[in-house]
Amino acid sequence: MYTALTISAVLIFAFIYLPMIVVVFYSFSENAVNSFPIESWSTKWYGVLMRDTALIASFKNSLIVAAAGTLIGLLLGIPAAFAVDRFHFPGKALFERLVLLPMILPGIITGVAMMSVFVLAGMNLSLISILLGHGTFLIAIVMTQVYARLKRFNRVIEEASMDLGATRLKTFFFITLPNIRTAIIGASLLSFTLSLDEIAVSYFLTGRDLTLPVQIWAMLRRGITPEVNAISTLIFIFSVVMIVIVTRLTRDKAEA
User: Fold this and answer.
1) Which among 17, 54, 233, 252 is placed 20 to 30 Å from 211, CA to CA?
2) Sign of the C-alpha dihedral computed for residues 21, 24, 28 and 33 taken in this order
C-alpha cells in the first residue's frame, strides 16, 4: 500500500514540476529557438534578461506591489486574527467569511469585480488599483496564518504576565508577539511570494505600468523565448526558497 502511495505521489509531483524543470534546462540553451536535444549551453539569456528595460521595470513594479500589499495584509490581517480569536461580537461568523472570501474566490472573479468598481468610481487603473486588488486577498492570507498560531497559543502565559504587574501592551510586545512572530514572518513571506506571482487579479487591474507576470504573459504572445525561460527560472527558484522558509518556520514553531 505504501509503495503504491509513494509511486502515485512521485508521478503527481513529476506531472506538476517536470514542465518547470524543462523550462529551467531551456533557459541555458544557447539557441534562440527551443529545440531538443540542446546542442550547446550558455547563460547569455540571463544577460539579455538583465538588459531588458521592460522586464526590469515590470519587476520593480512587482516588488513595489508585493511589498506594499504585504504591509497592508499585516496591518489589517493581524488585528483581524486577534479580533476573531479573542472577541465575540454580533456577525462574527459573517465577518470571518467576508475576510476569507477574496482568498476563496477565483482570481479572475476578484479582478473583474474590482475592475468594474474602479471604472464606475472613475478611478484610473494603475499600480494603486493592483495594490488594492492584491491587498484584499493578502489580508486573508495573513489572518489565517496568524489565527492558526493564536489557536495553539497558551494564553495562561499572558495571564501570568499581567498577574505579575505587566500591562496589556507590555504583555503583547514581550509575551504574545515573540510567540507568534514566526507565524507573522511566515505570513509575510508567503504573502510577498503570492503577490509577486499573481496574474489573474493583476491582468484586469493593470494600467500602463505592468507587473512582471503580466509582462511575461504579453511576451508569450510572440512565442516562448529563452529570455522568458530565464525569468521564469528565477521566479521559480525564488518561490521555492520562500515556501521552504515558510514551511520551516511553521514546522519549527509547531515542534517547539
Assistant:
1) 17
2) positive
Residues 28, 32, 34, 38: is their CA dihedral positive or negative? negative
Q: What is the DSSP letter of 165?
A: T
- As a CATH number, domain 53-255 is 1.10.3720.10
Q: How many Cβ atoms sit within 10 Å of the Cβ of residue 175?
A: 18
251 pLDDT band, cuts 50/70/90, is low
Give the separation between CA 55 and CA 40, rounded to whole angstroms: 25
Q: How confident is the model at residue 239 (pLDDT cuts 50, 70, 90)?
A: confident
Q: 105: which 3 cell numbers?
A: 474566490
Residue ranges of the chain that CATH labels 1.10.3720.10: 53-255
Query: Are 86 and 149 in contact, with CB atoms under 8 Å apart?
Result: no
How far is 143 from 157, CA to CA, in rounded Å? 22
C-alpha cell at 152: 495553539
Which triple of cell numbers denotes residue 4?
503504491
Convert the pLDDT of each residue in 153-193 to its tens digit: 887 888 888 878 888 888 888 888 888 888 888 888 888 88
Are 100 and 144 a contacting pair, CB within 8 Å?
A: yes
Model pTM?
Answer: 0.78
